[in-house]
Design goal:
By secondary structure, the chain is α/β, with parallel strands linked by helices. Helices cover about 20% and strands about 35% of the residues. It has 9 helices and 36 strands. Strands 1-10-9-4-3-2 form a 6-stranded antiparallel sheet, with no helix packed on it. Strands 13-12-11-17-29 form a 5-stranded parallel sheet. Strand 6 and strand 7 form a beta hairpin. Helix 1 packs across helix 8. The longest helix is centred in the middle third of the chain and has 18 residues. The two termini are about 40 Å apart. Bound molecules: flavin-adenine dinucleotide (FAD) and FE2/S2 (inorganic) cluster. The site of flavin-adenine dinucleotide has 37 residues, from helix 1, helix 8 and strand 32.
């Protein structure tokens, strides 16, 4: 995201601030030259780090200090206060760090410090070559972590996409709405891969895996040997077998190319039908409304998002979209699309020069299945994210892992989870034996309203609402047998972070 062009915040920290202004665990944002700097006090120590998250520029001063880390209020990235390292995705780049001096009850910020190299050393003999199948969230985060952890062996990324890894969540939000420039979409510039010795091969579809000879075969007949393999093949949109569903103005959305195609159609479209009132469907609806396109959402459920967020939040989401002009056709489906006319099952018709189908995704399991890996509505993995075949790991939308928080084997389709799993799998391919214990997190953005969700509750027997949902200031707790399994919130970021910490502590106890 773009750097904030606003004036630097708060006091000039090179002139010093009174120590008394910072209570223990307290935070204060000031500036050094043009840069916003966050001061954090932990007991007798004071840390000075960049005040903005390196993911989407979130204000770290509005986040939460936990031990020697600070967590971002927006999407729960976590930074090491000593080194600036982005310890938890979705941020991948460090924040800057400054030296601090304490003198006569004052804190003075001095020079910017060198960014220290990562501190973890691979244990045992490192594998010669790691092959990653995929070019999405989990795959990219794994490759980046391998290099951050100073892995010196070969890293080959095989992706059947024609684009280098992109910030997929942006494809239904700012980039689709037209408010984010093209440069924001790739996770890294093309030069990153060569500079970091990552052999990224695009349009490289892996057709099969030979777990015995430790080789993958590509669709073009070539083969690549591996010592460790990470499967991160993600998911693909469900396509409806609709009469007329194969016309060029009917789209699904997963890839950069899908998004570009929708954007191109949106240049001239006046009326759109979105099939599905899921996260992606409604984010697309919001982005198309930002382009002033008339939007009709058709979906079989009674309330949007009720299954995940409950009835109250479902009603809120519906009202929010209606305020922005979206017209819902709920408890209905599209029966056929005939040119620019969508016929509803209920009998009506809707004019549509653009149709976006967002009715869920299916994990891409063909390779895992062919390789004989154990499947369980996804690829079954151990707490270390290893599949049933030694040396083959899986992460992201395809992986079903033992979640210590819910006590269940779960599979989710969340960006942050995929990235964090990619990072853990990377470390485990280097023999670090790290269990994946992160509390699941996702966010969804509708117009200027973010909904954050921590934890995992497929079902619940109690839903408590704190605050006021229509006032966009609320926290919902999804409980089973009195235990909070998940928390959804709007503009209650610190409470959401605290709920995450509480879930971590509960699982560790
Ligand atoms: C438009 C959109 C918006 C989203 N917004 C959010 C959001 O706001 N918040 C959130 O939490 N989640 C969001 N998600 C979900 C999130 O993007 C996914 O959970 C995440 O991308 C999963 O990461 P992954 O690495 O498992 O799969 P992906 O990111 O899908 O990557 C899979 C990769 O594998 C490649 N591949 C698959 N099969 C093969 C093969 N045989 N050979 C070679 N390559 C192969 C694909 O080309 C792709 O590069 C969104 C998803 C979409 C589509
Ligand atoms: S802006 Fe900080 S995690 Fe997204």
């Amino acid at each position: 995201m773009a750097e904030d062009q606003a004036k630097p915040s708060g006091p000039d920290l090179t002139q010093g601030v009174a120590l008394a202004e910072l209570g223990d665990g307290g935070m204060l944002v000031g500036h050094v030259g043009d840069e916003d700097v966050l001061l954090v006090r932990r007991g007798t120590e004071i840390f000075a780090v960049g005040a903005h998250c390196t993911h989407y520029h979130g204000p770290l001063g509005d986040g939460l200090v936990v031990g020697d880390t600070v967590r971002c209020p927006w999407h729960h990235a976590c930074f090491d206060l000593r080194t600036g390292e982005a310890l938890r995705a979705p941020a991948l780049s460090p924040v800057a760090c400054w030296s601090v001096e304490q003198r006569q009850g004052k804190v003075v910020v001095r020079a910017k410090r060198e960014q220290p190299a990562a501190r973890r050393k691979p244990s045992g003999k490192a594998p010669d070559r790691i092959v990653i199948v995929g070019g999405g969230a989990a795959a990219f985060a794994a490759a980046e972590m391998l290099r951050r952890d100073q892995y010196q062996g070969g890293v080959v990324m095989l992706s059947d996409d024609d684009a280098a890894p992109v910030d997929r969540p942006n494809l239904s939000k700012d980039y689709l709405a037209g408010s984010a420039p093209e440069e924001w979409v790739p996770l890294r510039p093309d030069s990153f891969y060569a500079e970091n010795g990552i052999d990224l091969r695009l349009n490289a579809k892996v057709a099969s895996i030979d777990a015995r000879s430790r080789e993958v075969a590509l669709a073009d007949g070539s083969r690549v040997a591996y010592d460790r393999l990470l499967l991160a093949t993600g998911a693909e949109p469900v396509r409806l077998p609709l009469p007329g569903g194969d016309q060029p103005h009917v789209h699904t959305l997963r890839t950069f190319a899908d998004c570009r195609a929708i954007r191109a159609r949106a240049e001239t479209a006046r009326r759109a039908v979105v099939i599905g009132a899921s996260f992606i469907g409604l984010e697309v609806a919001a982005s198309l409304r930002a382009r002033n396109i008339e939007v009709h959402v058709v979906a079989p459920e009674r309330r949007p998002m009720e299954r995940v967020l409950g009835p109250q939040m479902g009603d809120f989401v519906r009202a929010l979209h209606e305020e922005h002009g979206v017209v819902f056709h709920l408890e209905d489906t599209v029966a056929a699309i005939d040119g620019a006319r969508a016929t509803l099952k209920s009998g009506g018709t809707l004019a549509a020069d653009l149709v976006v189908v967002g009715v869920g995704v299916r994990p891409r399991l063909a390779l895992a299945e062919q390789a004989g890996l154990r499947l369980d509505r996804g690829v079954a993995v151990s707490p270390l994210l290893e599949t049933s075949a030694p040396g083959i790991y899986a992460a992201g939308d395809i992986a079903r892992w033992p979640d210590p928080h819910s006590g269940e084997n779960i599979r989710v389709e969340h960006w942050v989870v995929a990235e964090r799993q990619g990072q853990t799998a990377a470390r485990n391919m280097l023999g670090q034996g790290e269990k994946f214990t992160a509390v699941p997190f996702f966010w969804s953005q509708h117009y200027d309203i973010p909904i954050n969700y921590v934890g995992h509750a497929e079902t619940w027997d109690e839903l408590s609402v704190e605050g006021d949902i229509p006032a966009k200031d609320c926290l919902l707790r999804f409980k089973r047998k009195g235990r909070t399994l998940a928390v959804a919130s709007i503009f209650r970021d610190v409470e959401s972070l605290k709920a995450e910490v509480a879930m971590e502590q509960e699982a560790a106890a």
